[in-house]
Amino acid sequence: MKKLEKSFSYGKPRFRYRGYKPLILISRCLNFQNCRYDGSRIFCAPAEILKKWLAYRTVCPESDIGLPSPRPPLNLIKTSRQGWLVSHPDAQNFFQQQLRTKSRRYLRENASVQGLILKEKSPSCGIAGCKYYHPGNSSPRGRTAGLLTREARKLLPRAALISAENLKNPEILFYFLVKVYTWRRWENLRRSYSPAALQVFQARHKLLFLGFNRQLVDEMGRIIAAQKDYNQNQLIACYEKLLDNLLQQKLTRGCWINVLLHGFGHLSGSLNKEEKKEFRRLIQKFKKGETSYWSLHNWLESQSRERDITYLLNQKFLFPYPPGINNELATIDLLPDPFETAINHQK
Ligand code: SF4
Fold it and tell me: Which of 26, 56, 175, 294 is within CB 3.0–4.6 Å of 117 for a Cys-Cys bond?
């Protein structure tokens, strides 16, 4: 832990790591235990790397209701009368009630989780790719979500969901990391709420949030400005709703360029002619999708650090999640990127 903390201490302000890990529920058959129907586990390299940065709690609805491993695989069956059933292909034992109860239990016992990393295609854990059948028919009728995912969407609608497969997708991984870390910071704020802390939260996320949606940022600002009209619970609930709405949006290249120009505005007074030219060149390349999100980001970050521009160094758009994550993911040729440039596709 000390080693990790040290690697973030590269100047003012320090990235605080302690007590900061987002809490994540993860399918136990991903790296942790041989609990799959065929007695195996799946090695997921990004999940293994993220283990250092995310606080994992493992779940396996099927083995936790007492099913052995190996076991006959379960099928998800859609019926018109009883809804979703889960059974072995050739048996009349149905497990949906036990699986649902177990799933709800995980979610209630971990109500503060920021996200779930799940094994796709499973009738229990699958996010959208699980085959389902009609009764008495052995041909799949389509694909859908498993029971744990259905319960998570009902009980913890704000938690970020990602499949092990999508952890390898730079764009989906970027949003997952931004979401779980932003919710984690929000959770920290809620635990020791004060009007001043909310103002700091909003100020530090301002540029990041502007990239998602300017109108919502304005609304958040209005709520904070009218704090006296709300009691604490109302204020938190209203702000949280807007934050949830904001985090469901996607960054656009145009909005992100405005954010970068805004950040650049805090630097430009201390840059020479050549440095300004270099920034404009990078912006043009970014506009055309010829350079990655991180090239401009890294440029702004290093210039801000060199000149000790505290306003920018405190902004979460430069550090939406610990920078060390990218360094370690790079070892498996993976770089989270919201814009999936040509550069990423070449990998
Ligand atoms: S997919 Fe879910 S239920 Fe199936 S083995 Fe993995 S953790 Fe268990």
Answer: 26
Does ligand 1 have an atom closer than 6 angstroms to the CB of 62?
yes
Contact 54, 180 (CB under 8 A): yes
Residues 98, 195: one domain? Answer: no
pLDDT digits (tens, 9 = 90+) for 41-53: 999 999 999 999 9
Q: Which atom of ligand 1 is nearest to the CA of 58?
A: 7
Clarify whether residues 89 and 201 are in a common domain.
Answer: no
Binding site membership of 26 for ligand 1 (Cβ less than 6 Å): no
Do 208 and 265 belong together in one domain? yes
Read off the pLDDT of residues 259-291 as tens digits, 9 standing for 90 and up: 999 999 999 999 999 999 999 999 999 999 998
| C-alpha 112 to ligand 1 mean position (Å) | 22
Predicted pLDDT of residue 141: 95
Domain span holding position 34: 14-168
Helix (H) or strand (E) holding 23: strand 23-27
Gap between the Cα atoms of 281 and 284, Å rounded? 5
Cα-to-centroid distance, 128 and ligand 1 (Å): 15
Within 10 A of 212 (CB to CB), how many other CB atoms are there?
Answer: 22
Residue 1 lies in a domain: no
Which uninterrupted H or E stretch holds 244?
helix 232-247
Asked if residue 5 has pLDDT above 90, the reply is no
Same-domain status, 152 and 227: no
| Pocket flag, ligand 1, residue 167 (CB < 6 Å) | no
Atom of ligand 1 lying closest to residue 59 CA: 7
